[in-house]
Design goal:
mainly alpha; GPCR_2_secretin-like; G-protein coupled receptors family 2 profile 2 domain-containing protein; GPCR_LN-TM7; transmembrane; G protein-coupled receptor activity
Amino acid sequence: SQVYAAVHHAAWLAAFLWLAAMSVNLARLLLCKMRPSSGTRCSRDFIVMAFLCWGIPVSVAGVCLALDINGFVDIGYGAAGVCFIGNAHSMLAVWIAPLMAILLLTIVCCLLVVRIVLKITPAQNKAPTKQSARRNQAVMCLFLSLLMGGNWIFYLVAAAKGDNDILWNLSILLNGCQGLYVMLCFVAKRS
């Protein structure tokens, strides 16, 4: 159960790091588009992102597992029937703090992308009117923010408020619909 809990920990960290990598990459690409003189190195960037997004979580969970098994630090992997981190202090240090840092980076990139999209003029948007161009921008910003993890803000608010069932249910609903957001953005299009 300790190994499963460590794999579970690494998988969740990897999922959030990939979300952050996607957000950073999208923000960087949009910034590069605004500055035509700068270039991109897509294939090398993907290898670096893959190494970071898988390497960091596996390293963190591996070190935590080794420390837990050898008794140097009580991480609490698999303790008390929990298939994750059973020690509250360790949970804060090796899960909640890194998660908050990753989400903060993701939210900053999301806000940057929304800001860039809002700078697009109606003429560049190929919309018939300025009002429809703004509506298109608003829909695009909403979908991009959902894809880039903006919905996790509701998790942070629910966690800060504690035992507010309405916030927790809203957080679970919005974060559980990630596949729906992908479908709406890439599959359910008119074109």
